[in-house]
């Protein structure tokens, strides 16, 4: 003889069935929705944890100088390996000019001159320069010019030598220019004429500008007018 089911028992059965249905409904959701739900529950932290790798932490000045000391003490392939390791641990270090300069020096020492010139150029791009593209010290563009010349990129190397000579006319720069003139110059121009024309080609030109005139509304000044503009300010 079957006994009637009590109301409490029936309610429990209905609750169990509802919970099971909810779980099965979750399993029927698309994979992307289930992944998003797992992320909201904090599973993203577990998903991006690298097993066996230690978090290097933030790149502070103290950490950077410690790496620079280690790189400076190494040489050859060991030095290049340390630079690669530094850039891998701290990708933001790729925005530090001195890192690329150290890499360029190490590549040049290994006679990988084409790669060295590219590293010198990256360092120069990340260095503050004036209107001529020269930093405060001309050592970096001079090394770029030398590695370009040594790697066979003669035209680019001579251009950088000429740019460097705008700010630096030391013996080393002028001797390098005289060598470039003796080995690669064409035409009958003497060295001074070749150098002057070369600087004119690479130096930024003066802009054309207009000034208020005395008897006319304005006066146009050409770049080759040979005039000096003096700007002054008076409180009166």
- Estimate the strand proportion: under 5%
List the helices and strands in order: HHHHHHHHHHEE
Overall mean pLDDT stands at: 79
Our count of helices gives: 10
The beta-strand count equals: 2
- The helicity comes to 55-70%
What's the shape?
flat
How far is the first residue's CA from the last residue's CA? 116 Å
The largest pleated sheet is described as: 2 strands, antiparallel
Radius of gyration: 34 Å
Largest sheet: spatial strand order: 1-2
Low-confidence stretches: 24-29, 38-52
Structure overview:
With 236 residues, the protein is mainly alpha-helical. The longest helix has 21 residues, at 7-27. The model is unreliable at 24-29 and 38-52 (pLDDT under 50). Helix 7 packs antiparallel against helix 8 (154-167) and helix 8 (154-167) packs antiparallel against helix 9. Helices cover 61% and strands 3% of the residues.
Keyword list:
236 residues, mainly alpha, two-stranded antiparallel sheet, 10 helices, 2 strands
How is the secondary structure organized here?
Layout (H helix, E strand, L loop, with lengths): L6 H21 L3 H17 L13 H13 L2 H14 L7 H13 L3 H13 L13 H12 L3 H14 L3 H14 L6 H12 L6 E4 L5 E4 L15
Antiparallel strand pairs: 1-2
Helix pairs in contact: 3-4, 4-5, 5-6, 6-7, 7-8, 8-9, 8-10
């Amino acid at each position: 003889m079957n006994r009637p089911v009590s109301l409490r028992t029936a309610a429990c059965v209905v609750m169990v069935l509802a919970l099971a249905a909810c779980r099965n409904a979750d399993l029927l959701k698309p994979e992307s929705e289930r992944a998003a739900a797992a992320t909201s529950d904090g599973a993203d932290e577990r998903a991006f944890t690298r097993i066996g790798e230690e978090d290097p932490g933030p790149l502070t000045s103290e950490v950077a100088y410690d790496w620079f000391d280690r790189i400076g003490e190494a040489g050859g392939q060991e030095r290049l390996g340390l630079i690669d390791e530094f850039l891998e641990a701290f990708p933001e270090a790729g925005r530090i000019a001195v890192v690329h300069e150290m890499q360029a020096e190490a590549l040049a020492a290994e006679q990988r001159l084409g790669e060295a010139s590219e590293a010198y150029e990256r360092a120069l791009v990340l260095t503050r320069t004036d209107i001529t593209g020269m930093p405060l010290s001309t050592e970096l563009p001079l090394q770029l010019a030398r590695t370009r010349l040594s790697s066979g990129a003669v035209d680019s190397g001579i251009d950088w030598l000429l740019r460097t000579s705008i700010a630096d006319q030391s013996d080393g720069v002028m001797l390098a220019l005289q060598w470039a003139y003796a080995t690669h110059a064409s035409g009958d121009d003497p060295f001074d004429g070749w150098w002057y024309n070369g600087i004119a080609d690479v130096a930024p030109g003066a802009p054309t500008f207009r000034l208020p005139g005395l008897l006319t509304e304005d006066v146009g000044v050409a770049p080759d007018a040979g005039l000096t503009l003096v700007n002054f300010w008076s409180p009166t």
